[in-house]
Amino acid sequence: MAARKSGKPAYHSGNRSQRTRGRDAQSINILAGKAVANAVRSTLGPKGMDKMLVDSLGDIVITNDGATILKEMDIEHPAAKMVVEVSKTQDDAVGDGTTTAAVLTGELLTKAEELINKGIHPTIITAGYRHAAAKCEEILKTITIDVSPDDKVTLRKIASTALTGKGEGDMHKDFLSDLAVTSVLSVAEKNDSGYTVDIDDITIEKREGGSIRDTELIHGLVIDKDRVRPNMPQRIDNAKIMLTSFPIEFNKIEKDAEIKITSPEQMQLFVDQEEKMVKAKVDNIIRTGANVVFCQKGIDDLAQYYLEKAGIYACRRIKKSDMEKLARATGATIIQDDTEIMEEDLGYAGYVEEREVKGTKMTFVMDCKNTKTVSLILHGGTTHIVDSLKRALNDALRVVGVCLEDGKVVVGGGAPEVELAMKLRQYAATLKGREQLAVNAFAEALEIIPQTLAENGGNDPIDILLELRSQHEKGNKRAGINVYTGKVVDMWEENVIEPLRVKTQAINSATEAAVMILRIDDVIASAGKSKAGEAGAAAAGAELGD
To answer: Do 141 and 153 share a domain, yes or no?
Structure first.
């Protein structure tokens, strides 16, 4: 730090760093955020287009799910990454509405840029946006519809709405929405305040082959592994289950070491000692009375032989996530050390069985101690179909779970956004100062959702938006766009229903991200990072912003 003649400090960054300040920094950040939003905008709605994403290894992902697209894209610019985080947060919180959140963030930045060009300070804009977002929550409460957990018909409509436009899931949405509702109700837990749903209790496995209609709902846990040896029992009744995170094999020396053997007898002693160590581990397992073993790591051939002789069903290389599900379902403790094995650590299930599913053997853990455990085995003609189906069904499961917890829904089709925009304009008129302009800009940004739905459906967005405004002015709060007919209709009658949390989460996340980006007026980065960021922004603006 050096002092100027004026007495004000001047800050010098290193030669390899680059700095962008003031209006230039804001412009670049806004451009990057808008580019990411434009990348997914064409995927919004039932008639949204799909994106084909090809990675460096040539693996292909075909999807119109906003969170998946943004996760797979190689985005460098830090401001653009904030928009990706919005979509990821939306996906984690509610499952659906990921594209809506990203598109809304981009439009809020677009409207903010217009205000900045008119001389409105970003601080005023961010204050107005926060007021508008808070007001949106109040307005949304006036248009919500209460749903009972026993109302399976409405729950199916919610799942069906989430599946609409999601590739193969759209074609079989009645069948899949029924599976989604049944699965969620099976794992839902009732408490004093209502219901809680842990979607992690629902295991989803994929299998190529057959049709989507072959998809099965299993009231138990399905593990994508078979027995380590074919002569082990195929089925174990009254299963006493042990979960081990240690390998059932000879402990290899991790450090570099040399063992000098000078005679055949010493070699035999070494081999015998290895065998004793493996047998000791297996004996510790047998002593507890366990008849099923799931091992997170390896089981060597000798251990497999001893386990087979003891009539134990064993699987190896189980994923950590599956081990945790097994622990929840059976009540077992995941054992870290073979010397600490105790009978109390075992879990229980009615039976464990190996079954063949479309040419692949899988392990079924049935009649678990925790009865709130279900599995879905998805079927489809190709890998891409079952991958797309899994993403669609995951969204459906999450929205049904959210609805069960909150008990509040709104209609879709752009109806809530138009109602919010209309009420926000009325609210803006009551404000003094320039914040009024920011609230109006927020209202205009919300209308990007019905506009985009209209565009992606091949309809005239201006005519549709004018008709929507007219209907909402007349008091038709549920008026939205039917993208198949291009008509403005009552979306409740069209069975287009979404959980309230999808909307509140999207609006709040988009607002927070836009505010964070707008408040940045100085970007300091190393030369390498900066170039990568500028290249990312330029590429995004050129290729994705069309």
So the answer is: no
pLDDT digits (tens, 9 = 90+) for 141-151: 899 999 888 88
In three state form, how does the secondary structure of 379-397 look? EECCHHHHHHHHHHHHHHH
pTM: 0.80
Which residue type occupies 400?
V
Structure-block tokens of residue 59: 């693996």
Q: Which are the catalytic amino acids? A: 65, 98-99, 395
Verify that 356 and 467 share a domain, yes or no.
Answer: no
pLDDT tens column, 301-331: 888 999 999 999 999 999 998 999 999 899 9
Residues 476 and 497 in one domain: yes
Residue-number span of the structural domain to which 344 is assigned:
223-249+275-370
Residue 324 CA to residue 333 CA, distance in Å, equals 9
Q: What are the beta bridge partners of residue 145? A: 409
Are 159 and 238 within one domain? no
Q: In this structure, are 350 and 439 located in the same domain? A: no
Taking a C-beta distance cutoff of 8 angstroms, is the pair 487, 420 a contact? no
The pair of three-digit structure tokens given for residue 332, joined into one six-digit string: 């077992």
Domain count of the fold of the chain: 3
Residue 513's CATH number: 1.10.560.10
pLDDT band at 58 (very low <50, low <70, confident <90, very high): confident
3-state secondary structure of 506: helix
